[in-house]
Specification:
15 helices, 5 strands, globular, DUF3800 domain-containing protein
Length: 316
């Protein structure tokens, strides 16, 4: 569980689709971290195998989400379960995240630093869908970031939007083209550049912030991810070294592991997978009151979530 004063946190995610935020298969991204030693994590896996009794070589969250295994899921998340008080999960509403990236063009690293422009993001999230052309604006921005559309196309659509509620913010965004072009130029020329619309890095940053809250350094053991190349891990450390974060976030190191081999990461995979599903059901008005109540004890209050009705039930 770490050496000295360090905490060693095992992490995994669910719902990652890279930078595809306008046509995703899943509408929620979840990133989980657990503070368990290897033996304790293995004991969780053994117990779940005993309760589920599936012949699968490696268990995944979908095993727990089947109705016939509900009791195993309730046991895992419950107050007397093996991860209660030893795990947390960061939830991200992908639509809200995309809107936050538009609102934050003035400071491209804002969301990664946990300093995104909340007031502006919430205003766009609330009023944007009422505007003609709003879906096309989101799609074009997503395509610009992914290199599939020209910057000019985004700003042309932005200039066509008219809203008395958003007039000042839209004027502000119209002047951000140099910032967006700088982000795109850096992305094209630097292999370390963090993918702007991939939620994984902001989730890890927030995880380090949350687990560092007691003043201890954090070492992360993360499931293998193509996003987490050696170059990007270096960039991640630089982000966490930003003066706005350095006093609160202490990353001692980050290594990658296979969930099939590391039981701690597999437990994190369970939590991320079930959290994403439970949260998505709440977001879409199909929430399960018992499971949501169990999950909310693990939810990071800094989760990036814009839908107020579902957040009122999910927030810790």
């Amino acid at each position: 569980m770490g050496t000295g004063r360090d905490l060693e946190i095992a992490c995994d995610e669910s719902g990652s689709e890279g930078e595809n935020l306008t046509t995703p298969v899943t509408d929620v991204f979840a990133h989980a971290g657990v503070l368990l030693g290897a033996e304790a994590a293995q004991a969780v896996i053994v117990e779940l195998r005993e309760r589920i009794r599936s012949p699968a070589t490696e268990y995944k969250a979908n095993h727990l989400l089947r109705g016939k295994h509900r009791s195993a899921l309730v046991w895992l998340l419950g107050p007397s379960g093996p991860i209660h008080g030893l795990a947390r999960v960061y939830l991200l509403d992908k639509h809200f995240f995309l809107v936050s990236r538009i609102a934050d063009l003035v400071d491209p690293y804002g969301p990664s630093l946990g300093l995104y422009r909340r007031e502006d993001t919430e205003a766009l999230y609330r009023w944007g869908p009422r505007l003609d052309g709003w879906p096309y604006l989101l799609e074009t921005f997503n395509d610009v970031i992914r290199g599939r559309a020209e910057t000019a196309a985004f700003y042309a659509q932005l200039s066509a939007l008219h809203s008395s509620e958003l007039r000042e913010l839209l004027d502000h965004l119209a002047a951000t083209r140099p910032n967006l072009e700088a982000v795109l130029a850096r992305r094209a020329g630097d292999p370390r550049a963090i993918p702007v619309l991939d939620p994984l890095i902001p989730a890890i940053v927030q995880g380090v912030l949350a687990w560092s809250s007691g003043g201890r350094s954090v070492s992360i053991v993360h499931d293998q991810q193509t996003t987490l190349s050696e170059e990007r891990i270096v960039e991640l450390k630089e982000i966490l070294g930003d003066p706005r974060l350095a006093a609160r976030a202490r990353l001692a190191g980050l290594t990658l592991a296979d969930s099939f081999v590391d039981a701690r990461v597999q437990v994190a995979d369970f939590l991320a997978g079930v959290a994403r599903k439970i949260a998505s059901e709440e977001l879409n008005g199909r929430g399960d009151a018992e499971l949501t109540e169990l999950l909310r004890h693990y939810v990071d209050p800094a989760s990036l979530w814009g839908h107020a009705p579902s957040w009122s039930r999910l927030r810790p």
